[in-house]
Amino acid sequence: KTGKVLGEFCRCYKEQYGVALFNSVRYEIEGNGGPQAQLLHRKVPLEDHVIYSGNLFQYIEENKKWRNRFCVVPHNYGLVLYENKLAYERELPPRVLINSAGYKVLTSVDQYLELVNSSLPGVTPKSGHSPILKCPTDFPLILWHPYARHYYFCVMTGKEQEKWRAVFQDCVRHCNNGISEDSKVEAPAFTDAIRMYRQSKEQYGTWDMLCGNETQVLSNLVMEELLPELRTAIGPRLKGKAQERQRTWIQISDAVYRMVYEQTKAQYDAATAKCEQERPQMESTIRTDMDQIITSKEHLASKIRAFVLPKAEICVRNHVQPYISSILEALMTPTSQGFAEVREVFFKEVTDMNMNIVNEGGLEKLVEYMEKLSHLAFHPVKMQSCYEKMDQLKLEGLQQRFDVSSTSVFKQRAQIHMRQQMDDAVYTFETLLHQELGKLQGKEDLCKSIQRILERVLKKYDYDSSTVRKKFFREALLQITIPFLLKKLAPTCKGELAKFQELIFEDFASFILVENTYEEVVLQSVMKDIMQAVKEAAVQRKHNLYRDSMVLHNSDPNLHLLGEGIPIDWGEEYSGQSEAESAADKRRRAKQVVSVIQDDEGVLPYEVGAEELLQPGSPEPREPKEPEEPDPGAPPSSPDGVEEIREALAKESLGDGMEVEERLTNGTDAMRESADVPSRASVQHTAPPSPKPRADVPSEAAVPHATPAASPAPGAETPSPSAGTACHQPSDKETGEEVASPVSQCSPLQPTSTTESGEGVQTEF
């Protein structure tokens, strides 16, 4: 199945590669400057920082036990689970690495059971029987994936649960946005090929599983077709009680997903390598014959336009135009509220900092606060109030009409823009403040200067956020309406397109495709109405949008020169720390964006001795609920009480590690070299000839991406090395980011035997 799907996809990819290369070269030559951004853009937002770290319990499926884990979220947003905090500080290998692309974060066992029950129709545990999962506390955190393995965690308090939920959701949001927008050829070629492949199967509209890097997206594409066939073939043959059949089905799905991932990776890498090999010759032809190619394409477009446009305009007038304003309003309200909240959070943080400097005084306090402020955009908890505004997005009634399977595509894209705008505002503020510091005399001058710079930055933010939102609205409207139009026009237009092929010169056939030109014509038929709707919203000053005529050119000519300088490190520059600090000390005091929960709430019973766990003297007075009476005939399930956790921790402390060695099936190896670049939450319809990766969703990169690299199968576990081996440094490259300065210098992970119930390192990124 993988071979068949990838064969068809790679044919689409090869065709789209030539078109994307032509668009890229044309854009480079002709240029297409939009409004100039007023805020500065930070190049490496989270270098050498940890987003978050803390303790939680993880349910280990292999031995059906809850174990304490120390979880670290590095700047690449992977989830790295260690045995405990000491193991992390000693640079021992992590237990599990998780790339969360495609996962959903659930905070209720009932939500999870509902998804599990629907994954295998006809298999539902009888009431009174033990469910597939029991949680020992009232605060679970579950990572659910439609194909890959699931991860079960729990914490002790509601406040912890909310913090971890925000962190997990940030990880999912970042990893979903996995295809590098720095790639001006491969990314648009890939997303267009995915779209063309799905349209060939009569699947139009948004696709929820365009998540992760290219290999993950293709694996999802294969599984989308393969899983129903597997369910039909294997489902009736599963034995045992309902819970066991569900558990077995999840394991089968995960094993198949890993197999598909490995095969997909090999075939996709071969296809991209072949295209890269042919690129120099193709680029040479494009540059030599650019004018002839453009003329040929315009001639083809005029013929297709004459045939398609009258039908498309009728379709737009009858089925699209009446709904554009209501779609736009549904998008504008939550999005603009989210951006307004970003402005409010930024204003409040800077104002609070200024007041604290007045009260506490001095440059030392400024440095301390600026170190925290510089990573405000990457603080999942503080940004949560901004992100939550997008939860209001509803396209009721419009969703069925326009075949929009889910609004999550638009929510995540808007949230990524919010984070980027927040970081741009913060970076501009700190750059301007850093420039002023040398000229200031005393605390009063400093506070006045901070206030003046804040007002200056907020004006720039208002302009940039208006530009970003207008672009987001236009592209979201295109993403909703274009698939609908293509589906409507397909019966009357698609069959007639073959006759236009003869209008393309054979030498230019790699750079001009009839199908793409047809879609451009359809896009043009609705683009005018979309532009007009957004323009009218701006003219009416709805939601603080600026008119298109308000363009700020070079309003601050020296500011962008400042942004090209060396990144500011407030701690090193002003704190006077010794430069001779060891790497181990730097790792131990690694700057963390979110404060550890234990620092905020007192010590929680994760790492105390087994005898003291949750005793009456514990800082957390709340007792977990009593476990239900288990079904005598039910298979072993997860421990559901505190006693079991105590026993688990007691055994763990006595070296309960040399248990069953995991059976590594399906040829999963540890840390293979690969060429991955991460993905996005939706397929695009891009307005040519711009080479932007996608036009269905805003195309600014939310985070910098680097050259692709190693990535084994999602969900694939590999054995953990023994404690004496060299530390495994989690690779950033599944999410497309390089670690500029690694937290620890370690040799690559080598497979050895597992040390605990087959629980190995999951090589996810």
Automatic annotation (TrEMBL):
Chain intervals for the UniProt region annotation (Disordered): 612-765
Pfam families documented for this protein: Niban2 (PF26086), PH_Niban2 (PF26089)
UniProt feature, compositional bias: Polar residues: 742-757
Ranges of Basic and acidic residues composition bias in the record: 643-675
Start and end residues of each PH domain: 49-173
InterPro entries: Niban-like, Niban_1/2/3_dom, PH-like_dom_sf, PH_domain
PANTHER family, per the entry: NIBAN FAMILY MEMBER (PTHR14392), PROTEIN NIBAN 2 (PTHR14392:SF2)
Family stated for the protein in its record: Belongs to the Niban family.
Protein name per the record: NIBL1 protein
Organism listed in the record: Stercorarius parasiticus (Parasitic jaeger)
